[in-house]
Amino acid sequence: MDIIEIKNLTKIYKAKEFWKNDIIPGVENINLTIAKGEVFGLLGLNGAGKTTLMKVLLGLLKPTSGSVKVFGGDINERKNRKKIGYLSELPYFPKYLTANEILDYFCDLFDIPVKEKAERIKSVLKLVRLEGKENIKLKNFSKGMQERLGLAQAILNDPELLFLDEPMSGLDPLGYKETRDIIIALNKQGKTIFFNSHILSEVEKVCDRVGIIKDGRLVAVRKINEIKKTYATLEQYFVSVVAPSAR
Ligand SMILES: Nc1ncnc2c1ncn2[C@@H]1O[C@H](COP(=O)(O)OP(=O)(O)OP(=O)(O)O)[C@@H](O)[C@H]1O
Ligand SMILES: [Mg+2]
Fold first, then answer.
1. Where are the domains of the chain?
2. Is the CB–ligand 1 distance for residue 72 below 6 Å?
3. How remote is the CA of residue 141 from the centroid of ligand 1, in Å?
4. Ligand 2 is a single-atom ion; what residues have CB below 5 A from it?
5. How far apart are CA 146 and CA 141, in angstroms?
6. Is 220 exposed, middle or buried (CB count within 10 Å of its CB: 0-12, 13-18, 19+)?
7. Is the pTM of this model over 0.85?
8. pLDDT tens across 199-231, in order?
């Protein structure tokens, strides 16, 4: 079953100032389907359109034209929203709250029953290796610790479909491995993961398929094991697609 269906999707940004006529292409004419249980990696240079595509899938941005379906329907329906998790590329949490307070708040947003909250928070904090840090205010968290908290928040509701926008940025090398292990563990439970990352050595270890966006267009979609038949590393393939002259 396809869990994400993207048809002829175009998102164009317009300048916010009414006196300007600027039009900034976000993504153009994207067609893509993601199957249930797949780990899909979206790759592309800075400004290529990865976050734009993810935000349209999440219902945070409206398509200019074309359509997206998630779980066969509209992502803005509550029943569908409840089944997704999202780590944004720049997670922001109020600095005066503790990790525990923030996750408690998100438990309420996700309608997690009060009696299950403490157990749920404990288990996600353990998974992202923040156990023992739950009562520290975020202003005393390092960048990587905030990123880990973002991941904890994204998986708090045990989502069927997880969107991760650069989940490894700011993490230490052990953090890469821990995030990779979390993605693999969730996938083994049958969850679908759609993420983007610039850390290609990690992407090639966890993804079934990758897509490459170049200037807003999806220029390649291939299985990792097929890529590895021709290229020693995903990085080599990526460079050959986005910058053929740099080979
Ligand atoms: N809110 C916005 N208003 C106008 N233009 C935007 C907005 N957000 C993104 N863009 C433009 O859309 C294009 C795609 O941006 P996007 O954030 O999707 O890139 P990205 O692939 O996620 O890049 P990065 O790797 O740097 O995160 C860029 O040209 C960017 O300037
Ligand atoms: Mg981005």
1. 2-83+160-246, 88-158
2. no
3. 27
4. 50-51, 89
5. 6
6. middle
7. yes
8. 999 999 999 999 999 999 999 999 999 999 999
